[in-house]
Amino acid sequence: MISFYQTPSIRIRLSLVIGLFGVISIGMLGRSTYLQILGDPKLENLARKQFQSHVMMNPRRGLIMDRTGEPLAINLETSSLAGSPAKILKSNSTLHLLARNLGVSPQVLKKRLDPKKSFAWFERHVSEVQMERFKKSGIVLSTGEMPEGLWLVKEMKRVYPHGDLASSLLGTVNVDTAGIEGVELWKNSLLRGKSASFDAFKDALGRPAVIQSSDHDKIVDGANVDLSIDASLQFSVEEALQASMEKTKAQSGLVIVMDSNNGEILALAQANSNGNKGVKKVMAVTDGYEPGSTMKPLLLASAVNKGIVKTTDSLFGHYGKFTLQGRTIKEAEAHEKYGFINLKKMVEVSSNIVAAELALKVGPERFLSSLKDLGFGFKTGTSLPGEIGGWVPAPTQAKSIRPLTLATMAFGQSILVTPMQMLRAYASLSNGGFLVEPTLLKRKDNELVKKTPIFKKETVRDTTEALLLVTEGDKGTGHKARVDGYRIAGKTGTAQTVDSRTKRYSNSRYMASFIGFPVGVKQPITVLVLFDHPKGVYFGGETAAPLFAQVIKSATNRFSIPSTEKMEIPTQLTVEKTDKQEVTLSQSSAEPVVTVAQATESIKEVNVDHPVMPSVVGLTPQEAIKALKPFSPAIQVHGFGVIRKQIPESGAILSAGIHVNLYLEE
Fold this sequence. Notes:
By secondary structure, the chain is α+β, with helices and mostly antiparallel strands. The strands form seven sheets. Strands 2, 3, 4, 5 and 8 form a five-stranded mixed β-sheet that branches. Strands 10-9-19-18-17 form a five-stranded antiparallel β-sheet, with helices on both faces.
């Protein structure tokens, strides 16, 4: 019997099958040999896509440091949860596990995942608490392994080691450590460095595992930023400001300390009534305000510098009421009623009316030109985000300025300035007459500081003498700014603010301020304190001046600024007989002798159209002599000290040669 496999037809068929498989095997062998040795670009590209990825590597963000090198903003390594949506959607267990840890339902998470994407962030900057939860839930095993399609990515997190210290100034970054506010935004291009992309191999779970590149030098880490701020002083100032905020119950408060010589900002603290929540702008340059009486010394300095007046000149105070264009200008206090007072006294007692008279005497062209020279109406040059230039009329608009507007500008209304502009203007009196550019960056060694001369030395000297009377004079409004061991020159400011509802000046809302500097120190500094809408007592001398004194103490201690010998203000003088007037005053022989002729020699004739006896009560005899000079009276002085009684009384008609008796405090 013949076997089935031995039939010719079967043998032929088997031979054909074997031959076919042999051909296929030879073909496969040849193809594989070809692919192994010569390669196929198409297949290589497919393999590369499966096992390789293009990864963008971010550099390390630069640090922000204070002037001493103390870090204010640093980086810490952290982990973020990421994964592949395509792989997660293929595993219900992974989907449910991830949804539970993210606090959403699997259905919601499923809708959020795009199956076409191979990468997505799920939780950025995982905290330690979150990491413990991940470990307990099984997302992260004890071995460090994770379900397929999920992985942890190492990132850098921005950290501020001093907590909220200077937080409004430093600003913040977003989750990708890109600056969005404050210095972080201002210097973002410098801090962020330069990113670079690399080809990376993926592991079996699709995670970037090995980076292969010879171009690591393409990554440029961010540069550090050295601020001019002193962290220690900043802490002291912020602490003092917060205490004052609680005491004054102001809506907001601001303190700036500046090196008068080079413009470096040594401390900048701000606070508001809601605990600084949401306040990241730098109010010193972004917010404008009407400066109030702090404008008066700047007006005086400008007028003296242009030779229009001298600080010893007298102007008429209209006894507390000055009508101009149908409107009445009054003093801050109803009991303040001044006749003729000299311009130093104007600063000491902060007379609105005398300041208005001075502005009218200066004229709009010269006044506006002076404001421009002081930098008002222009940005200060800090380059901080959101800085404004404020608003003052340009000198070309002088002809359109009406007398009433000019008068109100004299005591700091009808114009808009920034705190940084006011600080810089006062610093020019502290540093000898130069306008410097404020900076929040520490200046480099031997860096040239641009100084624009605006005031003569004599102007600085005379204006500073007037500012000293604010804290040292009997009628000074800034006594609470005094600091033991230092002579303080400064000015209080109390300005009405415009009610946003009525568009008129409010009778219940004020800006209270004090700006000043210690006189005669080797390292001059200038300090501004500002409160918006303090409750209760709102005068700058009662709210801002005490905080100013605390800040000066902190600054002088921090920078070891030696105290200066406090000069006593002479309260006695001897007046001798002259050809025209007869004055008798017995005083200590140690005091200098001043004659009436000497006292009035530099006084110009002013306001002789008002032949009425001014009030000189509270003045020194010398000041009274200057105030009465336009009427050439014969003056008899009785006693010692300041004037407590006068005959004739204020308001009496004066005539040339009239006899005046001044009775001093015994």
